[in-house]
Amino acid sequence: MTENEPNSPFEDDVIRAVASENDVEESQLRDALEAHQRVMADNPGVEDLVYEWRRQYDDPVLARTPETFFVAVPPTVWEEYGDFLGLDDYVLRALSAVHQEQTLRSDAVDLSGMADGHAALVVSRTTDGERR
Fold it and tell me: Which residue intervals define the domain DUF8048 in the entry (predicted)?
């Protein structure tokens, strides 16, 4: 995920701030963000993934825009992604923190719908400028 990539759901200043606050190299965090978005897009696909989360969790979609889903998932989802991607704990914490901060900054999201104990997860619905 390069700086100012048009299909990135994350603002550059969010990534930079979270990297700094979590003592993670910005390039390492960007690589983790890119890998995470790619995994969600490729396996099983964004729409299918969100559909499965809707079936598993009570109303997890916090907001949807043409480009992005904002969902609330239990911590086990983040743990599974961390294991699957082989991320060190500190990188996984920073990755999750980017999602939390971006969600907080989004005008589209109403956090009152977030279930207790759940964490935000931002899913890009686009790739190369096209909708998934």
Answer: 9-108
